[in-house]
Amino acid sequence: MRYSILYFSLFLSLFISSCGGDDKKADLTAIGGKVYGGEFRFMSSEKIESLFTVAVSDIYSHRIVSQMFEPLLKIDVSTLKVTPCIAESFTVSEDARVFTFKIRKGVFFHDDECFEGGKGRELTAEDVKYSLDMACSGLDVNKISYLLVDKIKGAKEFESKSKKSLIKGGVSGIKVINSSTVEIVLQEPFVGFDKVLTHVSLSVFPKESFEKYGKDIKNHPVGTGPFMLETYDNDKIVLKKNVNYWRSDDFGNKLPFLDKVVMTYTKNKRSELLAFRNQKIDVVLEIPVEDIEFVFGSLEEAQSGKNVKHKIETTSSLRIAYMSFACESNEFKDERVRRAFNLAVNRQGIIDDLLEGEGFPANNGFVPNMETYNNKNIKGFEFNPELARSLLAEAGYKNGANFPALEIYVNAKEGSSNHKLYKGIVANLKANLNINLKIKLCNIKERNSAIASGKCKLWRAGWVADYPDAENFLCLFYSPNISDKGGSINDFRFRNIEFDDSFRKALKELNTEKRNEYLLKCDQLIIDHAATMPLTTADLIVMVNVRLKDFKTNCLESMDFSSIYIKEKR
Length: 570
Known about the structure:
The longest helix is centred in the N-terminal third of the chain and has 19 residues, at about 1-20. This protein has helices at about 1-20, 60-70, 125-135, 155-160, 195, 205-215, 270-275, 290-295, 300-305, 335-345, 345-355, 385-395, 415-435, 445-455, 470-475, 495-510, 510-530, and strands spanning about 40-45, 75, 80-85, 85-90, 100-105, 175-180, 180-185, 225-230, 235-240, 260-265, 285, 310-315, 320-325, 360, 405-410, 435-440, 460-465, 530-535, 540-545, 550, 565. The protein has 17 helices and 21 strands. Helices cover about 30% and strands about 20% of the residues. By secondary structure, the protein is an alpha+beta fold. It is globular, with a radius of gyration of 25 Å.
């Protein structure tokens, strides 16, 4: 009987969805204990400056943009395998050079004024090509060309010729076979190319939106995702439900469940936690250890029911925190100086004394350990102040003499864990090398502007995997990824012929074991030449209001709001 009822409910749900169209009344009921409606609220510590796919490269922007746009493929965060998204299916040639995608039918862009009559049209193979052409272009708005230009046939030439506008025909290696088929031809074999195409910034958008809005497209996102833009101002971003979204869950429930997603900005972590306790937001990402007592409150508060009912989710994260050097600057072009800085910092001591045990020292290279990449044999930096002083003296700065007093640009809030981490670094470098540095607290935009201008020589940085592959971390140090326009992925401006050669070999190697050998070599070269200062890895700790259901954490720290729902206690 139970199964009969379930099948009838499933049939009824599908019937309602197919007849509903834009009628919101069709979405009032769901099966499987799930509920339609409600507003999900969270906060960001960084300002979202753009909502255009190719213009965003930080995780804060991706968390919003990924709700409105969708790429060809996506990562199943439970298995870390590539699965279809806009592409219904795909095939790869034996030599891993030709990728062919069948585009899903029935996927529509959001309703928007850029379309005739304001009604969103169905996505086609032409839209996929146009979006990928844009991601390969030399336009100033494009910040993610590094993902594709050295991989796709003809992309490098297209980038150089499209500095002001997209040239006719687009990238020669991206071909529309018919209205539902796209073929991508690579310059060299690359078995990991399908993972690259899961990147949020490679999501599909319509040509009409860019032609209508131009430079203002950052304020007018038009995608195919489960949510669409309602409000975008200095205080908040509000997304509303896309009633024409194509996906359904395993029960046949039409997605998404939520009516709205509201993101506001936080002054600091303490204010974010206070907002959670007052039930003004539903989730807190990255809970600092020192605030645990504040989060949970006192025993008396718990007994009197004052604490908001919640749950804690923890997962390992593919994240690395590091301090960056401007490797071509006068101060850091000598790798002995960079090595001295690395050797003079007691990472474990800072974690124990200042961060209350939060995090783990990055002792095994730059790339975090993952299922497809074992970093245990990478020899990282050990705390050795004596060797550090010797190297600094060799570089001409004995006992720190004549080394300039620099500012470290740290995008963090005062008193936060990241602020404390860098206070520890400053203290270590003073104590062990007699070098005087100052912390300049800033936001991402201010930091990036200072890096691009050359004013910033040292800065706080971090990287969370866009997809689970060591290549996604190591591409940061590949010299062709140095760009003179803002947003360069290799903003260290690190150049090393041996690294570049091994990285290229890894890209085209079909044998997994040999490919990892090249990647491991690249990782070790980063340490040997002190290209950066790896600091810590960490687990992701998330606090969730119990009214929020099916919210799942993952090692990529990505967020999918399409299937979460709100169920209030009755």
